[in-house]
Amino acid sequence: MDPANVRAQFERFGRFRVLVIGRANAGKTTLLQRVCNTTDLPEVFDGKGNKRGYHNIENELVFRSNPGFIFHDSCGFETGSVEELEDMKMFVTGRSATTKLEDRIHAIWYCIPANDISRLITTAEEKFFSECDTRRVPVIVLLTKVDALNGVAIGELREEGMNMREALHAAGGIEQQLLKKSEKRLKESLETYKFPPRSYLSLGKMHEESFDCGNLLTTTSNALDEKALQILLISTQQTNILFNIKWAVK
């Protein structure tokens, strides 16, 4: 990767900016910590660089371990508030089309917890994918906490009459079936909306510090329309050597 080229992209676009959406139990903070290789919480700033709290979608979340990313939090949109939905729509429309490249959002990560099987798609998802114009920015739906499906599988097997030892032994296969069923149902449903996601990815073991975010970065990079943005994303990855090598070879 040519350092001069990377520097040029930073000067043109600023830092890689991601809007993160998801319910309170979707694992958003844990995901961002893994991407930035830290256990610390982010610092929160307004657009002028002043420290703030979380309660505004315009505020910027930055981790000291990897300041190459700027994250924005959806801040309560998932509760179904009409006002929060309108704020979301205005933010996405404005930030995906702004001529100020350093303020533009480059990707949206929409987190949905896999263990919430009965309500994979709620009113929040229906409104977002029906009303929020995301044609200028790629949305990647992340099915998070897929390893929690193991507990769901054990519960189902126990209800069928297995003892705990038997259920633990058989749960792996049922877990995979549940995951495939959830992935299929999620994709088939979201593809019917006006503004469907660009990509989908299932993530598990996010609670482990050894979690590899390479698949997430690759999926995000592949969803980007501009090569320059791919280079910008790659340049933020100071620790993910395999990801950097893969794209250097490309």
Low-confidence parts: 239-245
Rounded to an integer in angstroms, the radius of gyration calculated over CA atoms is: 19 Å
Largest sheet: 5 strands, parallel
Q: Give the strand tally.
A: 7
Main-sheet strand order equals 4-1-5-6-7
Task: Please work out how many helical segments DSSP would assign.
Answer: 9
What does this structure look like?
Helix content is 44%, strand content 14%. It has 250 residues and is α/β, with parallel strands linked by helices. The chain has a 5-stranded parallel sheet. Strand 5, helix 4 and strand 6 (139-144) form a beta-alpha-beta unit. Helix 5 (149-159) crosses helix 6. The model is unreliable at 239-245 (pLDDT under 50).
Secondary structure layout plus pairing:
Layout: H1 3-13, E1 16-22, H2 28-35, E2 43-45, E3 60-62, E4 69-73, H3 82-97, E5 107-113, H4 123-131, E6 139-144, H5 149-159, H6 164-190, E7 199-202, H7 214-223, H8 227-235, H9 241-249
Parallel strand pairs: 1-4, 1-5, 5-6, 6-7
Antiparallel strand pairs: 2-3
Helix pairs in contact: 1-8, 5-6
Give a brief outline of the structure.
By secondary structure, this protein is α/β, with parallel strands linked by helices.
Main attributes of the structure:
250 residues; 14% strand; alpha/beta; single chain; five-stranded parallel sheet; globular; two-stranded antiparallel sheet
